[in-house]
Specification:
The structure holds 2 protein chains of 2 kinds. Chain A is α+β, with helices and mostly antiparallel strands. Chain A has 3 domains: 2-205, Aldehyde Oxidoreductase, domain 4, CATH 3.30.365.10; 216-308 and 381-456, Aldehyde Oxidoreductase, domain 4, CATH 3.30.365.10; 343-373 and 468-732, Aldehyde oxidase/xanthine dehydrogenase, molybdopterin binding domain (Aldehyde Oxidoreductase, domain 4), CATH 3.30.365.10. Chain A is 27% helix and 26% strand. In chain A, the strands form 9 sheets. Chain A has a 7-stranded mixed sheet. A 5-stranded mixed sheet of chain A has the order 2-3-4-5-6. Chain A has a 5-stranded mixed sheet with strand order 18-26-25-24-19, with helices on both faces. The longest helix of chain A has 28 residues, at 117-144. The relative contact order of chain A is 0.11. Mean pLDDT of chain A is 93; it is low at 10-36. Chain B has 2 domains: 2-77, Ubiquitin-like (UB roll); 85-150, DNA polymerase, domain 1, CATH 1.10.150. Chain B is an alpha+beta fold. Chain B has helices at residues 23-30, 85-92, 102-115, 121-128, 138-150, and strands at 2-8, 11-17, 49-52, 55-58, 71-73. The longest helix of chain B is centred in the C-terminal third of the chain and has 14 residues, at 102-115. In chain B, a hairpin with a 2-residue loop joins strand 3 and strand 4 (55-58). In chain B, 34% of the residues lie in helices and 17% in strands. The relative contact order of chain B is 0.16. Chain B is built from 5 helices and 5 strands; from the N terminus they run E-E-H-E-E-E-H-H-H-H. In chain B, strands 2-1-5-3-4 form a 5-stranded mixed sheet, sandwiched between helices. Classes of the chains: A alpha+beta, B alpha+beta. At the A-B interface, helix 5, helix 7 and helix 16 of A face helix 1, helix 2, helix 3, helix 4 and helix 5 of B.
Amino acid sequence: MKTIKTSIGRRSFIKRSTLAGGGIMLSFNWLASCDMSPSQVKALPKEWFKINGFLKIGENGLVTVMSPNPEIGQNVKTSMPMLVAEELDVDWNDVIVEQAPLNTSVFKRQLAGGSQSIRQGWNSLRMAGATARAMLVQAAAQTWGVDASEITTSNGQLIHRASGSKSGFGPMASLAAEMEVPEEVQLKDISDFKIIGSSRKNVDGTKIVTGQPLYGLDYSTDNMLIAMLVHPPAFGMQLKSIDESDAANMPGIKKVFTMKTHLEDYSLGAFDNDAFNEVAVVVGDSTWEVMKAKEALKVEWEMSPAKKEELNMFGRTRTIETPAGLESSEDHRLVFEKMANKKGKVVRKDGTPEIMFSKAAKIIERTYTCPFLAHNTMEPMNFYADVTSERANLAGPIQTPEFMEGSISKRLGMDKEKIDIQMTRMGGGFGRRLYGHFMTEAAVISKEMGQPVKLIYSREDDMTQGTYRPAYQAIYRAALDKDDKLIAFHVKTGGIPESPLAANRFPAGAIDHYLAEEWEEKTNITVGAFRAPRSNFIAGAEQSFLDEVAEAMGKDPIDFRLELLKKAEDNPVGENNDYEASRYAGVVKLVKEKSNWSGADSDIHRGTAAYYCHNSYVANVLDLEMQNGNPVVKKVYCAIDCGIVVNPDAAVNLAEGGVVDGIGHAMYSALTFKDGAPEQSNFDKYRLIRHSEAPKEIEVHFVDNQIDPTGLGEPPFPPIMGAMANAIYKATGVRRYNQPFITDKPLAG
Amino acid sequence: MAQFELNVNGKTHELNVDPSTPILWVLRDHLKLVGTKYGCGIAQCGACTVHLNGVAVRSCQLPVSSVGNNQLTTIEGLSEKGDHPVQQAWLEHDVPQCGYCQSGQIMSASALLEANTNPSDEEIESAMNGNICRCGTYTRIKAAIKTAANS
């Protein structure tokens, strides 16, 4: 058992919310989920007792657990409350989950990003449950006149064996809420877990399959208007003027105007990325009327000048230079060509790689590229805002509510205390909703209108003014001696506008003579984090290259990786290696075993890959079959080490999704540019993976260990790209160096 | 603007809207039936799938003026208590991740099973190819459709 200090406040949270007439529970917000799940047999209680900020208990033993973090499909709305419920020791069937509002003084890190929700909530959420449990035990001890240490709990019951006393949590909840918060609490042994490690269904499942309102786009209030934006048609352009006469007179249109998301004196923060600061706004009664008026709006655009901005990266200032001009993918391809012949900035060097390359009997050099990508969450960007001189109420899909509260506070000149942000379930995030300019826009529009508005991006708006995955290039070189032994390794990566290099990750640490360089080239195309930033390209490139090196060395690709990892484990090169070689090797061995690596049928072409990112390890084997000349993914084996798995079936689902997403983007997706304008603006031209292209079967295995949980949202996404490329090579004899593999040309759509 | 009488989920609604308004926005903005989702507006993603006389159609490309007396069914009207076999299979397989596309997936799947009670893998893929799931739940969707077919 583990004892930890509590850090949970209580006095300010004690509130009793009593049932309003007619059985409707007082709820925190519109999103509060008071519905019973079908398996729940208890009726809603008459009274709730708030034990702490994370949970309240009804007199009949029903428990409401607040889910602190934004839900983007990674299942935290189920898995985070599971951590609370485990330590509370309640029956999961007696738990109702509510989405917490933004309140970081209670809920701490309320952010969806970096695959960190479970990892960083692991102790604090269990502590919240354990604290409440301890207070229930104290209440029972006082009631029964016995020592608290003699009381045990199980499935929502308090038990004192010696006296035979027994009570549900409900009858003790009132008194428990008055108990002192213990200074320290004991957490369960892993072997005593009843909820963590057993699969629990998505708490929003019933609402999703019956079409109930859940998402930002579904949010509405009385008197709400619909707003849409018109942004410049190309990066490198800005708004000059609008002629609103036609649009403003169309049916249902309330107002047409221009707005600036950020004012000139504002220092942009880390998540304030915004493609176009000044846009035209059309506001009206209904979406279709606004869409029609948008088309009728006449706008003049002009070239935007080069800019130099100070970016406030959490207190650290970074200067961002944005060039002028209209960029095309062909320009970007030429940048790649130019930089291929230049030296980069050396980021890591072990041994004497230059000398070893000069001595090499054979040098393998390969160049890999990938294009810009749009996130394309199925729910386009949107947000609700109701701004008055007194208050700002916002609701919608956002991965970074805390950060955006600060931005909006500055933009409106309003104290944060007067700003309320409700987090809706999100129709996908993938990093796009880290950048909440659409929230600021909605707030500014509502203020202008003096009325609540819901800002909606059309699919075209969403795709053509994103914060895209950057375009990357990686050039790998391997030096082999006359015995085909690997003697030196060189990677040079770059991108527009950032490099994808992770210089201290594998195979760094496994090779005596190693050189890593990088370069960057400026652009005026806005970029941002995209599921597994940088890893989402470099994993596939690196793992394809290692496959080719193994082949040149006459080695099995899995054996080759394991040899390198053994060296990194037993005798690591350098000191800053950013991975644990033994855990890395663990997933490679597991996937080898589960896939029966050497025993595939002759018509199956197998590719393998492994990668480490976001604190977790993933290895794949991908089985490809050629059908009528087309590659068909028959099966994918996925081995994952992410520590303790909280909700196994949901974790499998997330891993399956990562595999499908990775294959899809590597094979099919690209955003290309012509004179500053994205050449794809909707799903007719922007290709996303579809049903028939998905693997026919995906088998996911987790390493069974007792390590505290690490990330899972991102890690299954990057390596499968390499496994796909390697399997295609086995099937066709042709290596794929450029994403999307379907075209295999640098920066082609 | 024009007057329309629309039959949705067995109920008649009277509306005064622009005749070109897609059923998608009539459902979402005017009838507050928001289970039908906006994804692309050009019939490429399937998030807005509804049934017109039992056949799956993309409501973003269906002007209100073209519906007449035909029967529209949305995800909210697929079953009274959320117990349609496809909905139940979706819960059994815990299909959704973000969940946004799933009402469209369910409407396409239920129309498929109405027309073909025991579809093959290829028939499922073909019928479902117009519905994008950005989270990549395709293998679960297929498994859920097979479960629903067998129930």
